[in-house]
């Protein structure tokens, strides 16, 4: 199972709770600036409860982008050991975006989110309404590019996996029907073609 590594730029974003990251597939690294001396108590308690799945990394030195370089180093180190890892940088700093583009060009999964709740896999698991679920499916299909499911069976299986097998076959059929109704997919003899909306 793929591990999602959450790398938090604590100089830039100070999440107060990590209850959305209780699954075993999440590992959390909190990067703390050299001049930061306080951590939110709720965050500290949540991290302690995660045990070995969470760690603090206090960076050495100060200066422009010092923390960013530490995050980049740890992504490189982890990706050498775990080639199937998915990295989520939590930061409002757009300076990470060129790094993410470079990682993707090297087939290393990475994304930047402004908040923990913006992480795609978290959004998917919290999707309740049909609209939220359709949005999650569309986002997933866009990310897959040419590797989108080509048959109705594989599309249904992909939707089931996307929602961590928390939807029944009736709901999957309903979601597929909604994709067809909106002309996002076309099914011909169980073969699927796509006309996805622009982001």
Describe this structure in words.
The chain is an alpha/beta fold. 40% of the residues lie in helices and 18% in strands. It has a five-stranded parallel sheet with strand order 3-2-1-4-5. Strands 6-7 form a two-stranded antiparallel sheet. It starts with a strand and ends in a 5-residue tail after the last strand. 22% of the residues are buried.
Which strand-content bin applies to the residues? 15-25%
The count of DSSP E runs of length 2 or more, i.e. the number of strands, is 7
Helix content: 40-55%
Q: Span between N and C termini?
A: 28 Å
What general form does the structure show? elongated
Overall pLDDT: 89
Q: Mind telling me the C-alpha Rg?
A: 19 Å
How do the helices and strands line up, and which of them pair or pack?
Elements: E1 4-9, E2 26-32, H1 41-49, E3 54-58, H2 66-81, E4 86-90, H3 97-105, E5 109-113, H4 120-126, H5 130-144, H6 152-162, H7 169-181, E6 185-188, E7 191-194
Parallel strand pairs: 1-2, 1-4, 2-3, 4-5
Antiparallel strand pairs: 6-7
